[in-house]
Amino acid sequence: LNISVSSDGGNATSGHQYGFLHEDISNSGDGGLYAELIRNRAFQSSYRYPSTLEGWYSVNGAVLSLQNLSTPLSSALQTSVNVAAGDADGAIGLYNDGYWGMDVKQKTYTGSFWVKGSYSGDFNASLVSNITGEVFGSVAVASQSTPDEWVEHTFELVPSVDAPSSNNSFAITFDSAGAEDGSLDFNLISLFPPTYKNRANGARVDLAEVLEAFHPTFFRVPGGNMLEGLVNSSYWDWKNSIGPLKDRPGYAGVWGYQQTNGLGLLEYLELAEDMGLELVVAVWAGLALNGDITPQDELQPFIDDALNQIEFITGSADSTWGAIRAEYGHPEPFTLKYVEIGNEDWLAGAPEGWETYQEYRFPMFLQAINDAYPDIQVISSGSVLDGYDIPAPADGDYHIYGTPDDMVDQFDLFDNITIPHLIGEAAAVHPNGGTAWDGGLLQYPWWGGAIGEAASLIGYERNSDRILGALYAPIIRSLDRWQWATTMVQFAADPALTTKSTSWFVWELFAGHIFTHTLPATSDFNPAYYVAGKNEDTGAYIFKATVYNSTEGADVPVTLNFEGVSAGATAELTVLTGPEDPYGWNDPFTGVNVVTTTKTTLTADDAGAFEFSLPNLSVAVLDTGAV
Ligand code: AHR
After folding, report:
1. How confident is the model over 273-287, as pLDDT tens digits?
2. What is the residue with the minimal CA distance to atom 7 of ligand 1?
3. Whole-angstrom Cα distance, residue 300 to residue 285?
4. Distance between CA 296 and CA 354 in Å, rounded?
5. Helices 265-275 and 205-212 sit at what angle, rounded to 10 degrees?
6. Does residue 343 have its Cβ closer than 6 Å to ligand 1?
7. Ligand 1 centre and the CA of 51: distance in Å?
8. Could you tell me if 578 and 502 are in contact, meaning their C-beta atoms sit under 8 angstroms apart?
9. How many angstroms does the Cα of residue 26 sit away from the middle of ligand 1?
10. Could you report the predicted ipTM of this complex, rounded to two decimals?
11. Which residues have C-beta within 8 Å of that of residue 385, sequence separation ≥ 6?
């Protein structure tokens, strides 16, 4: 392959080619990125999921019962747990085994719980082994409770030793003799380890850091089906996700479990701020997954809601919603350039879903947002590639979940598309030949899938004057409860299981070498797919490539010549190769990483060319650094 790259004639890119979508799927939010350790901390319920005692157990024979008191903790949190002595005496209480375990280390845990009832004495809060009963750390919390009011108790707990495993629980006990009628009511029992960037109510450190490490700069949120909701009366309403935790009712998650609303809009915005991510904020567009559609004459309140949401994000602290954001701890407005209307409106309730989107839902949102915020780029939740019209001045959103072959087909898909698009969700999900969602997904993302993704990403970068960026989804997956195997990061309570999928390595490599401009390059494609560009901030010339199914699996020799790079110049070539079996994956339980990274320093020959060869099923980046 002889590739000559011109030094001009390309296009400026968005600068934000890589990022991710977040929604709570596979416990990527509650029990995942959201650092709360207590599962079912407030016995929340919804039209779909009743309150339960899931995750809670009795200490010393205490009788636990869910109650809807006439004085609930708040209108949002109506159900609490009564802890009664029954036949027991002495210390009684309840414990929670977390999201399938709790990581206990010698660090400061921040906790709180609300109590109603008369109690004189101390509460005891502790982190305990489920296996041996060993108490790793405990703290006495002096009671401030009163008979008729809910009173919050806060504490810090520092274990004196690291627990040997994550098979641990958090317990609260009290002396039943000190409780006036032998019982107390509890609600909103919360425990956080230190969080990413020390944010209150923040993100789990290892998960946030492994995301940050793939160099994302684009963040679409709140995402996916979670935004839409199962029915129109239950969608991800941003207003339920802000403010004190006691005022967040929780949400009937669309992926089979109740959500807490703990990872709310402000938490998402702060995460974006902490990671330096450009936001694409999605607003609800009047369509739910069951095909419920909000009629035109009932849509205006939701448009007002979207405008309020934008004001909450971008308004000064003097504006109505900006003042609320300031009250909740963030006086500075956030920058917001992109707003997407809905999620996959072409899919739910087809064909009426899209018809009503075209007819009135999208135009009404577009007009209102353009009028109020002319600098915001509105994005449609559909794509011209799916056969849908995107009215000016909107951009489109294209989602692709496919086989490696499908992903390779993305390579030139956008070459002749003039309307800018976000690739709002992308991942290889099925092996070639597979289509089924039930059983058709491999157990973990696999190397051949990651190669397909590389070809698609190269295709998007070729067109990155019109492709705003490509977002991986779903991005995080619990190993204890998951709906999609697709992920960049898999985790469990034990941080040793936080592992990167094969896709993480490919996206990290490409996202770590950003073009500000593409550059025209001459040569054929297939089996090598490539793109070249320049980063005008660093002065580097960059080449990205993958080889997909070369003839008989042969290496592809490359001679790469950049106009502007002279003989003797050096470049770093990074090549990712996978296991012999392209279906190999990174198994979190063995810790084996099947991706091999090889870095070589190359020197341009007398003709100014870099010579190297790329193995079949490899991914490569050559970066000259400042020239
Ligand atoms: O990423 C999983 C789901 O796939 C998203 O929720 C939805 O937008 C898409 O269909």
Report:
1. 999 999 999 999 999
2. 224
3. 10
4. 14
5. 50
6. yes
7. 27
8. yes
9. 12
10. 0.99
11. 396, 398, 413, 414, 417, 421
